[in-house]
């Protein structure tokens, strides 16, 4: 599975748990941190954790395992690091505050829905 397919799989898994405003950003040529960022949000801490679990389960089923993760217990801003794909799952309030997609405004948004 290439990194674009992986990013789309993440978006689909987040969508399965009703994540809001899912963005897949192509970071190649914009940042050396990763090829893709996926940014989405949940309305409650429990939904943020459910989205994270859905993403991890979907990728583990494909034999892809998270390298590092942060913020899972708090459910405010969780990050899953899959090396070339980084997943940011925000509580809606945190996303409105940090506006991460504006920071990476030069990145191209990728269509992920079938």
TrEMBL record:
<keyword id="KW-0963">Cytoplasm</keyword>
<protein>
    <recommendedName>
        <fullName>Ribosomal silencing factor RsfS</fullName>
    </recommendedName>
</protein>
<comment type="subunit">
    <text>Interacts with ribosomal protein uL14 (rplN).</text>
</comment>
<dbReference type="InterPro" id="IPR004394">
    <property type="entry name" value="Iojap/RsfS/C7orf30"/>
</dbReference>
<dbReference type="GO" id="GO:0017148">
    <property type="term" value="P:negative regulation of translation"/>
</dbReference>
<dbReference type="GO" id="GO:0005737">
    <property type="term" value="C:cytoplasm"/>
</dbReference>
<dbReference type="GO" id="GO:0042256">
    <property type="term" value="P:cytosolic ribosome assembly"/>
</dbReference>
<comment type="similarity">
    <text>Belongs to the Iojap/RsfS family.</text>
</comment>
<keyword id="KW-0810">Translation regulation</keyword>
<dbReference type="GO" id="GO:0090071">
    <property type="term" value="P:negative regulation of ribosome biogenesis"/>
</dbReference>
<keyword id="KW-0678">Repressor</keyword>
<dbReference type="Pfam" id="PF02410">
    <property type="entry name" value="RsfS"/>
</dbReference>
<dbReference type="InterPro" id="IPR043519">
    <property type="entry name" value="NT_sf"/>
</dbReference>
<comment type="function">
    <text>Functions as a ribosomal silencing factor. Interacts with ribosomal protein uL14 (rplN), blocking formation of intersubunit bridge B8. Prevents association of the 30S and 50S ribosomal subunits and the formation of functional ribosomes, thus repressing translation.</text>
</comment>
<dbReference type="GO" id="GO:0043023">
    <property type="term" value="F:ribosomal large subunit binding"/>
</dbReference>
């Amino acid at each position: 599975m290439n990194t674009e397919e992986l990013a789309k799989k993440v978006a689909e898994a987040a969508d399965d748990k009703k994540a809001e405003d899912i963005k897949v950003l192509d970071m190649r040529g914009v940042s050396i941190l990763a090829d893709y960022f996926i940014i989405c949000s949940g309305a409650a801490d429990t939904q943020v954790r459910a989205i994270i679990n859905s993403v991890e389960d979907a990728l583990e089923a494909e034999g892809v395992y998270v390298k590092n993760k942060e913020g899972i217990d708090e459910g405010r801003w969780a990050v899953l690091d899959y090396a070339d794909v980084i997943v940011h799952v925000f509580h809606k309030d945190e996303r409105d505050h940090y506006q991460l997609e504006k920071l990476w405004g030069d990145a191209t948004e990728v269509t992920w829905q079938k």
